[in-house]
Design goal:
single chain, 14 strands, 10 helices, five-stranded antiparallel beta sheet, seven-stranded antiparallel beta sheet, alpha+beta
Length: 322
Protein backbone atom coordinates (compact mmCIF):
# COMPACT_ATOMS: atom_id res chain seq x y z
CA UNK A 1 0.00 0.00 0.00
CA UNK A 2 1.41 3.40 -0.99
CA UNK A 3 1.92 6.21 1.51
CA UNK A 4 -0.87 8.27 -0.08
CA UNK A 5 -3.29 5.35 0.32
CA UNK A 6 -2.19 4.99 3.93
CA UNK A 7 -2.72 8.71 4.49
CA UNK A 8 -6.24 8.54 3.00
CA UNK A 9 -7.19 5.56 5.15
CA UNK A 10 -5.68 7.15 8.24
CA UNK A 11 -7.59 10.39 7.62
CA UNK A 12 -10.88 8.51 7.21
CA UNK A 13 -10.23 6.35 10.25
CA UNK A 14 -9.53 9.45 12.35
CA UNK A 15 -12.73 11.11 11.12
CA UNK A 16 -14.78 7.97 11.82
CA UNK A 17 -13.39 7.83 15.36
CA UNK A 18 -14.34 11.45 16.03
CA UNK A 19 -17.91 11.23 14.69
CA UNK A 20 -18.94 7.63 15.45
CA UNK A 21 -20.31 8.31 18.93
CA UNK A 22 -22.42 11.41 18.15
CA UNK A 23 -23.69 9.83 14.92
CA UNK A 24 -24.68 6.63 16.76
CA UNK A 25 -26.58 8.61 19.40
CA UNK A 26 -28.34 10.58 16.65
CA UNK A 27 -29.34 7.35 14.90
CA UNK A 28 -30.85 5.98 18.12
CA UNK A 29 -32.89 9.14 18.68
CA UNK A 30 -34.16 9.12 15.09
CA UNK A 31 -35.74 5.68 15.60
CA UNK A 32 -38.31 7.20 17.98
CA UNK A 33 -39.61 9.74 15.45
CA UNK A 34 -39.02 8.02 12.08
CA UNK A 35 -40.28 9.03 9.47
CA UNK A 36 -41.86 12.27 10.82
CA UNK A 37 -40.14 14.88 8.62
CA UNK A 38 -40.80 17.88 10.88
CA UNK A 39 -39.60 16.03 13.97
CA UNK A 40 -36.51 14.82 12.14
CA UNK A 41 -35.73 18.38 11.07
CA UNK A 42 -35.91 19.62 14.64
CA UNK A 43 -33.70 16.79 15.91
CA UNK A 44 -31.12 17.19 13.15
CA UNK A 45 -30.92 20.93 13.75
CA UNK A 46 -30.16 20.32 17.44
CA UNK A 47 -27.66 17.54 16.67
CA UNK A 48 -25.61 19.20 13.95
CA UNK A 49 -23.58 21.13 16.51
CA UNK A 50 -22.51 17.88 18.22
CA UNK A 51 -20.81 16.46 15.11
CA UNK A 52 -17.39 18.10 14.45
CA UNK A 53 -17.08 19.85 11.05
CA UNK A 54 -20.52 18.68 9.87
CA UNK A 55 -22.14 21.38 7.72
CA UNK A 56 -25.19 19.47 6.49
CA UNK A 57 -27.47 16.76 7.91
CA UNK A 58 -30.38 14.97 6.22
CA UNK A 59 -32.28 11.68 6.41
CA UNK A 60 -33.43 9.31 3.68
CA UNK A 61 -35.22 5.96 3.56
CA UNK A 62 -34.02 2.57 2.30
CA UNK A 63 -35.13 3.47 -1.24
CA UNK A 64 -32.94 6.58 -1.32
CA UNK A 65 -35.83 9.04 -0.95
CA UNK A 66 -35.09 12.02 1.30
CA UNK A 67 -37.50 12.14 4.23
CA UNK A 68 -36.12 15.24 5.99
CA UNK A 69 -35.08 18.72 4.94
CA UNK A 70 -31.52 19.73 4.24
CA UNK A 71 -30.48 20.87 7.72
CA UNK A 72 -27.64 23.32 8.36
CA UNK A 73 -26.72 25.19 11.52
CA UNK A 74 -28.25 28.31 9.96
CA UNK A 75 -31.62 26.68 9.26
CA UNK A 76 -33.51 24.06 7.25
CA UNK A 77 -34.37 23.78 3.56
CA UNK A 78 -37.48 21.61 2.97
CA UNK A 79 -37.26 21.87 -0.83
CA UNK A 80 -35.33 18.62 -1.04
CA UNK A 81 -37.91 16.52 0.83
CA UNK A 82 -39.03 13.62 -1.34
CA UNK A 83 -36.05 13.92 -3.69
CA UNK A 84 -34.52 10.71 -5.05
CA UNK A 85 -30.90 10.48 -3.79
CA UNK A 86 -30.29 6.94 -5.03
CA UNK A 87 -27.78 8.10 -7.68
CA UNK A 88 -25.59 10.03 -5.26
CA UNK A 89 -21.90 8.90 -5.24
CA UNK A 90 -21.90 7.30 -1.80
CA UNK A 91 -24.71 4.92 -2.78
CA UNK A 92 -22.37 3.15 -5.19
CA UNK A 93 -20.85 1.37 -2.19
CA UNK A 94 -22.37 -1.21 0.11
CA UNK A 95 -24.49 0.62 2.67
CA UNK A 96 -24.09 -0.05 6.38
CA UNK A 97 -26.71 -2.04 8.26
CA UNK A 98 -25.16 -0.82 11.49
CA UNK A 99 -22.68 1.89 12.41
CA UNK A 100 -21.05 4.56 10.21
CA UNK A 101 -19.74 4.35 6.65
CA UNK A 102 -17.68 7.06 4.94
CA UNK A 103 -17.98 7.87 1.25
CA UNK A 104 -15.24 8.77 -1.19
CA UNK A 105 -14.63 12.45 -1.92
CA UNK A 106 -17.16 13.96 -4.35
CA UNK A 107 -18.50 17.34 -5.47
CA UNK A 108 -21.68 18.16 -3.58
CA UNK A 109 -24.79 18.99 -5.64
CA UNK A 110 -26.22 21.03 -2.78
CA UNK A 111 -23.20 23.22 -1.95
CA UNK A 112 -20.26 23.86 -4.32
CA UNK A 113 -17.74 22.01 -2.14
CA UNK A 114 -15.76 18.81 -2.24
CA UNK A 115 -17.30 16.65 0.44
CA UNK A 116 -17.21 13.36 2.28
CA UNK A 117 -20.49 11.93 3.53
CA UNK A 118 -20.86 9.79 6.64
CA UNK A 119 -23.86 7.45 6.66
CA UNK A 120 -25.38 6.30 9.95
CA UNK A 121 -27.81 3.40 9.74
CA UNK A 122 -31.16 3.86 11.50
CA UNK A 123 -32.56 0.47 12.55
CA UNK A 124 -35.39 -0.75 14.76
CA UNK A 125 -35.71 -4.35 15.94
CA UNK A 126 -33.09 -5.44 13.38
CA UNK A 127 -35.10 -3.77 10.61
CA UNK A 128 -33.32 -1.07 8.59
CA UNK A 129 -35.43 2.10 8.38
CA UNK A 130 -33.03 4.38 6.53
CA UNK A 131 -29.96 6.52 7.03
CA UNK A 132 -28.76 9.79 8.45
CA UNK A 133 -26.28 11.50 6.12
CA UNK A 134 -23.73 13.98 7.46
CA UNK A 135 -21.70 16.01 4.96
CA UNK A 136 -18.17 17.27 5.72
CA UNK A 137 -16.28 19.79 3.58
CA UNK A 138 -12.90 18.45 2.57
CA UNK A 139 -11.21 21.80 3.29
CA UNK A 140 -12.35 21.65 6.93
CA UNK A 141 -11.08 18.11 7.42
CA UNK A 142 -7.65 18.86 5.99
CA UNK A 143 -7.13 21.70 8.48
CA UNK A 144 -8.01 19.62 11.55
CA UNK A 145 -4.75 18.45 13.14
CA UNK A 146 -6.61 15.64 14.91
CA UNK A 147 -7.17 14.07 11.51
CA UNK A 148 -3.55 14.36 10.36
CA UNK A 149 -2.09 11.27 8.68
CA UNK A 150 0.93 9.49 10.17
CA UNK A 151 4.43 10.54 9.08
CA UNK A 152 5.61 9.20 5.75
CA UNK A 153 7.66 6.03 5.88
CA UNK A 154 10.52 5.02 3.62
CA UNK A 155 9.55 4.99 -0.05
CA UNK A 156 11.60 3.60 -2.90
CA UNK A 157 11.13 4.31 -6.62
CA UNK A 158 12.92 2.41 -9.36
CA UNK A 159 14.38 4.60 -12.08
CA UNK A 160 15.01 4.21 -15.80
CA UNK A 161 15.49 0.48 -16.70
CA UNK A 162 18.09 1.48 -19.29
CA UNK A 163 20.19 3.07 -16.54
CA UNK A 164 19.72 0.18 -14.13
CA UNK A 165 20.73 -2.34 -16.79
CA UNK A 166 24.10 -0.71 -17.44
CA UNK A 167 24.96 0.46 -13.92
CA UNK A 168 27.83 -2.05 -13.49
CA UNK A 169 29.40 -0.82 -16.73
CA UNK A 170 29.88 2.69 -15.37
CA UNK A 171 32.13 4.32 -12.80
CA UNK A 172 31.79 7.54 -10.85
CA UNK A 173 33.48 10.45 -12.61
CA UNK A 174 34.82 13.00 -10.11
CA UNK A 175 32.88 16.24 -10.38
CA UNK A 176 33.87 19.77 -9.50
CA UNK A 177 31.54 19.58 -6.51
CA UNK A 178 33.34 16.45 -5.31
CA UNK A 179 36.59 18.40 -5.15
CA UNK A 180 35.02 21.04 -2.91
CA UNK A 181 32.48 18.88 -1.10
CA UNK A 182 33.49 19.90 2.43
CA UNK A 183 33.14 23.59 1.62
CA UNK A 184 29.82 22.99 -0.09
CA UNK A 185 28.35 21.02 2.80
CA UNK A 186 29.66 23.49 5.39
CA UNK A 187 28.00 26.41 3.61
CA UNK A 188 24.73 24.54 3.13
CA UNK A 189 24.69 23.73 6.83
CA UNK A 190 25.32 27.39 7.66
CA UNK A 191 22.58 28.59 5.29
CA UNK A 192 20.06 26.13 6.71
CA UNK A 193 20.99 26.85 10.33
CA UNK A 194 21.20 30.64 10.22
CA UNK A 195 19.93 32.05 6.92
CA UNK A 196 16.36 30.81 6.38
CA UNK A 197 16.99 27.96 3.93
CA UNK A 198 14.50 25.18 4.71
CA UNK A 199 15.08 22.87 1.72
CA UNK A 200 18.35 22.06 -0.04
CA UNK A 201 19.00 19.81 -3.00
CA UNK A 202 22.57 18.92 -3.94
CA UNK A 203 23.37 17.69 -7.45
CA UNK A 204 26.76 16.06 -6.93
CA UNK A 205 27.30 14.83 -10.46
CA UNK A 206 26.40 18.05 -12.27
CA UNK A 207 27.85 20.37 -9.61
CA UNK A 208 24.95 22.60 -8.57
CA UNK A 209 22.72 23.28 -5.57
CA UNK A 210 19.08 24.36 -5.32
CA UNK A 211 17.93 26.21 -2.19
CA UNK A 212 14.46 27.23 -0.97
CA UNK A 213 13.92 30.06 1.56
CA UNK A 214 11.21 30.71 4.12
CA UNK A 215 10.86 34.28 2.87
CA UNK A 216 10.45 33.21 -0.77
CA UNK A 217 9.15 29.61 -0.83
CA UNK A 218 7.72 29.74 -4.35
CA UNK A 219 11.12 30.33 -5.96
CA UNK A 220 14.36 28.44 -5.57
CA UNK A 221 17.91 29.76 -5.83
CA UNK A 222 20.21 27.82 -8.15
CA UNK A 223 23.98 28.04 -7.51
CA UNK A 224 27.00 26.67 -9.32
CA UNK A 225 30.14 25.58 -7.51
CA UNK A 226 31.87 28.95 -7.65
CA UNK A 227 28.92 30.56 -5.87
CA UNK A 228 28.20 27.88 -3.30
CA UNK A 229 31.82 27.69 -2.06
CA UNK A 230 32.11 31.45 -1.69
CA UNK A 231 31.70 32.34 2.03
CA UNK A 232 30.27 35.71 1.01
CA UNK A 233 27.18 33.91 -0.32
CA UNK A 234 25.73 34.29 3.19
CA UNK A 235 25.43 38.03 2.51
CA UNK A 236 22.85 37.21 -0.16
CA UNK A 237 20.62 35.38 2.34
CA UNK A 238 18.81 37.02 5.27
CA UNK A 239 19.86 36.16 8.80
CA UNK A 240 17.03 34.06 10.20
CA UNK A 241 16.44 32.23 13.48
CA UNK A 242 16.11 28.47 13.21
CA UNK A 243 12.36 27.63 13.19
CA UNK A 244 11.00 26.20 16.42
CA UNK A 245 8.63 23.90 14.50
CA UNK A 246 11.33 22.32 12.31
CA UNK A 247 11.31 18.52 12.39
CA UNK A 248 15.08 18.33 11.97
CA UNK A 249 17.59 19.97 14.33
CA UNK A 250 20.73 21.79 13.11
CA UNK A 251 22.79 18.93 14.53
CA UNK A 252 20.81 16.42 12.51
CA UNK A 253 21.26 18.56 9.39
CA UNK A 254 25.01 18.30 9.86
CA UNK A 255 24.78 14.53 10.36
CA UNK A 256 22.63 14.09 7.27
CA UNK A 257 25.03 16.11 5.14
CA UNK A 258 27.95 14.03 6.40
CA UNK A 259 26.08 10.86 5.41
CA UNK A 260 25.49 12.33 1.94
CA UNK A 261 29.26 12.67 1.58
CA UNK A 262 29.80 9.08 2.69
CA UNK A 263 27.27 7.75 0.18
CA UNK A 264 28.85 9.82 -2.58
CA UNK A 265 32.32 8.29 -2.11
CA UNK A 266 31.67 4.86 -0.57
CA UNK A 267 31.53 2.97 -3.87
CA UNK A 268 32.71 3.80 -7.39
CA UNK A 269 29.75 2.03 -9.05
CA UNK A 270 26.83 2.56 -6.66
CA UNK A 271 27.06 6.18 -5.58
CA UNK A 272 24.86 9.14 -4.72
CA UNK A 273 24.03 11.38 -7.69
CA UNK A 274 21.79 13.87 -5.88
CA UNK A 275 20.22 14.32 -2.46
CA UNK A 276 17.92 16.66 -0.58
CA UNK A 277 16.88 17.57 2.96
CA UNK A 278 13.85 19.54 4.14
CA UNK A 279 13.90 20.63 7.78
CA UNK A 280 10.16 21.42 7.90
CA UNK A 281 8.70 18.10 6.78
CA UNK A 282 11.79 16.24 7.98
CA UNK A 283 12.31 14.33 4.74
CA UNK A 284 15.52 13.23 3.06
CA UNK A 285 15.65 12.36 -0.64
CA UNK A 286 18.33 10.25 -2.35
CA UNK A 287 18.94 9.40 -6.01
CA UNK A 288 21.68 6.89 -6.81
CA UNK A 289 23.73 6.06 -9.91
CA UNK A 290 21.26 3.29 -10.73
CA UNK A 291 18.58 6.02 -11.01
CA UNK A 292 16.71 4.57 -8.02
CA UNK A 293 15.26 7.10 -5.57
CA UNK A 294 14.46 6.88 -1.86
CA UNK A 295 12.50 9.19 0.47
CA UNK A 296 12.34 8.88 4.23
CA UNK A 297 12.49 10.86 7.46
CA UNK A 298 15.86 12.24 8.52
CA UNK A 299 15.73 10.14 11.69
CA UNK A 300 15.14 6.94 9.75
CA UNK A 301 17.94 7.85 7.32
CA UNK A 302 20.43 8.39 10.15
CA UNK A 303 19.60 4.99 11.63
CA UNK A 304 20.89 3.22 8.51
CA UNK A 305 24.58 2.59 7.84
CA UNK A 306 26.50 2.24 4.58
CA UNK A 307 26.13 -1.54 4.52
CA UNK A 308 22.39 -1.10 4.31
CA UNK A 309 22.61 1.12 1.24
CA UNK A 310 25.41 -0.56 -0.64
CA UNK A 311 24.25 -4.07 0.19
CA UNK A 312 20.61 -3.55 -0.76
CA UNK A 313 21.42 -1.48 -3.83
CA UNK A 314 23.88 -4.06 -5.17
CA UNK A 315 21.34 -6.81 -4.73
CA UNK A 316 18.73 -4.75 -6.57
CA UNK A 317 21.08 -4.07 -9.47
CA UNK A 318 22.11 -7.69 -9.82
CA UNK A 319 18.43 -8.63 -10.03
CA UNK A 320 17.72 -5.84 -12.52
CA UNK A 321 20.65 -6.81 -14.75
CA UNK A 322 19.71 -10.49 -14.95
Amino acid sequence: MSSIQQAILAKKAALAEVISEPMAKLGERCVEIWPDADALDRLLHIAIGTIPHCHLLYAWDINGIEVSSMVQASGTDPSWRGRDLSLRPYLKNHLPFKGVMLSSVYMSQYVPKQCITALQAVSKDNRLLGFIAADFALADLIQDTRLSPPPMRWQQFRGDPAVRGTVFMQERAPSLLDKHIDQVLDLIHRLMSHHGVFHSKIHFSSGRCSLWLFDDPYNYRLHNIDEIINPDICLAYPVCSYPANAKVSPTQVRQVLDEFKSLRFADETIYLRSSSINIMNGLVGLTFSCDGSHYMSAGEFLEKDLSFWLGSLNVQQVEAAT
